[in-house]
Structure prediction request, 284 residues.
Amino acid sequence: MSTTAARSPMGRLELGVSFRGGRSVASRQFHQGALRVVRPHYLDDSGQVCYVVVNPGGAYLGADLFVLDVEVCEGADLLLTTQSATKVYRTPGSFAEQRMAVRLGEGARLELVPDQLIAYREASYRQRTHITVRPSSSLAMAEVVTPGWSPDGAAFRFEEVRLRNEIHVRTEGATQLLALDNLLIRPPSGDVTGLGFMEGFSHLGSLIVVDPRVDQALADELHGVTSDNALTGISLTRTIAGTTGLVLRALSNSTGELNRLLGSCTALLRERWHGQGPLNLRKH
Prediction:
């Protein structure tokens, strides 16, 4: 790991959001290299600000490193998405990597809904996300991983995709680990759909929610929303300072199906907890 830790980032992005004048605004912005954000949008009258992360290079290649730092201050509300899918092409020599640090203040909210991650033939990718929340913070993260396809319709066989999410709860007295979610997809013999590995499916969706309102009843309700669409599983974390985490996994053979499934889950949370309608992120 010493060689990867020393390499210079291809792109760096820092974004801080605060609550001012009845809505959330950027209080800090910095970008360098192949990462930036476009101008903010307000998709409704809730005051939630939406920022879109852009990678002008369009793809991740071998040994590329991208670093993001996001802070949502007390009472602020951020929706963070991407302009398009994250594409990871062949990575000879070393994996491509994204490192992201997220900090949420008291009463702060973050919805992180990037477009799908597409891993192509001979691609190796690692994504490390370190998150610190307060007991009253609200976090929802949705992610879809799909294999790239060749012109003849055969699935590209990527080497590895590793998504590591480390979530801590910070109180006045200490910072405690709430969840360590380490997802590793390393297809045996390059076949991502092998039985006993992805149970014959090729696409994977994840939803992570951390909020004081997360409980078993919510987990049961989300399972009911998703059970007819794909193979799903839901688990709860322990509770720290009154807040609990929920992790949902879904397997499918369709990006669109997983996006609809995760969209149904986030729509339920948005309407019930925040009085907002479903997300409609038009990017064309």
